[in-house]
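Homework-ish question, so no full write-ups if that breaks the rules, but can someone show me the predicted structure for this set?
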Amino acid sequence: MQRAYLRSIAQLRFWKWRRARPQGNELLGTTFSDAAFRELKAFALAPLLAERSVPIRWLATSTLAREEELLRSIGASDGCRVECLDYECGWRDLARLEDVLPDVRISATLATMVMEG
Amino acid sequence: MNESCCQFGPERRLAGIITEPSERALRLGFVLVSAGLLPKCGPYRLYAQLARRLADDGIVSLRFDLGGIGDSGQEHEGRPLKARTELEIRAALDYLSERYDLDGIVLGGLCSGAEDSFRSAASDARVTGVVLIDPFAYRTRGWAWRHVLHRLGRRALRALGLYEPLGAEMPQARAEEKRPGLVSYKYMERAEARHILRTLVKRNAQVHFVYTAGMREVFNHPGQLRALLRDLDFEVRTISNRGAPPSFRVGPGVVTLDYLPRIDHTQLLEEDRRRLVEVVARRLRGHAA
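A: Not a homework solution, just the prediction itself:
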């Protein structure tokens, strides 16, 4: 996504293209320290979940099958489940990165999931 | 520098952050108004960075969430949005002026935050200046020619594979474009902008415009601001030094303009935010002087 963003502003700074490239570990508006960046890249959920069987409530917005597959791939236990709200939030669309989501029951559903314990 | 949370408004439902310099070198306050529906840190934390940078220059600032955004609850329910926003900005001005001995307060913001600041400044004499980042702009004949050239350049870069508009590679995003947006923002009408500008310059308030490339669809040359000023019944005189960004004396007030054609509307890159912050800081130093 960061690369897509840089391509989208190439027309603004064509003559300064080299300078336009962000310094360090800058990704989508946030700059990470080298250490944090290394840790993020090395981070893997599956081993942690294998150690402790944490019951996971997973809230998906659209693409339920893909999310369920993702949950299985990180080694979630049987008690885990995915709930889906049918709304495309555009999480991977850079043009909508800062959009405010309408009230599609995300907060209310999360609250219910937390209260379920 | 010291930062503290605050609550204000008739029912203390508005939430903000005061950024106070360790030494108040200038008796100037700065209030940042929410940009669109974004909370008080601003897009990619622009407001937080700006407030901290201004503290280095001795300027105290308040950035806050308008009612219903971020940590702020709704104040003045039942009133129209414009009236509510004006009352909330007034509450922020009250809060700052009650706590600090100030010679003046500057209101500012990005996009809708700029326009909300501009409207409120017109009706509050405590406001001695405004910083408008990407506010209203109106196309001119010159804009159309420059836009054609820009589009040609963009097409050439796209053909070379160097430029790709956002979302072009995502079919999903293209489908979404056809759906109506969640929020549709309409910029201020020219007549209203002209009226407010006239009010402010007559009152000797300083009006600082900043335009980025994000406004390219309506603004692509600093000369376009002159067109807006020309409609006013004031003498326009360039007072900038060679190489410095334009600055005009219009009647008793001063209007300045910084045009940043390589920076996008919400400055995702740190370098862009830093540049914008420095531009605003320089104008506010000049304002205080």
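Now go work out the reasoning yourself. Hint: Chain A has six helices and four strands.
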